[in-house]
Every structure is written in C-alpha cells, then in structure tokens.
Request: fold
Amino acid sequence: MEIKDNELLRQFEIITDTGLVSIEYSLQERKIFLTKFCENENSDEELHEEFIKNVLAIAEERKLKVVPTHLKIIKFFRKNRKYQEMLPPGIKI
Reply:
C-alpha cells in the first residue's frame, strides 16, 4: 500500500480502484490529531483498517502521539488495544 502524505492539504492519501481514500490530520507540538476519514462510496473495511495501521506506523516512526477525533478511527483504537500506547497521557478510549 502506497500512502502519500499530502502536507499541503494535511492528509494521508491512498488511491483505490474506486477512488481516493484519505485521513485528514492536524499537527500540534508532538501530537497528530486524526480529524477526518474520507472514503468513497465503496467501503472496504479491510482496506480501511490496513490504511489506518499504516498511518499509525508513520506516526510511530515520526515519534508522534496520536489523538483520534473521528469516530471510525476511535472505533479502530477500541478494537485494537495494542495501539493504546500511542495515545497521549490522560486520553483514554
């Protein structure tokens, strides 16, 4: 999966057979706020989960704490407890 970090639009993007899927973000200090998950009408949940995992790997590589604010990403954190350590102190999901 090839993820493009579009810094101008502040979003991570992938191109699928059905179009563009993106996660919008905002950076503050050493935190990345994942604010919006934009998907096309054909929703492939496995692809979306893989995309979120790869975005979290990028955040981990950049040594950023992750603050999920979009419901789909919050649900991902609840379902995958191993990513809880990426949350900043005081934030529980």
The two ends are 27 Å apart (CA to CA).
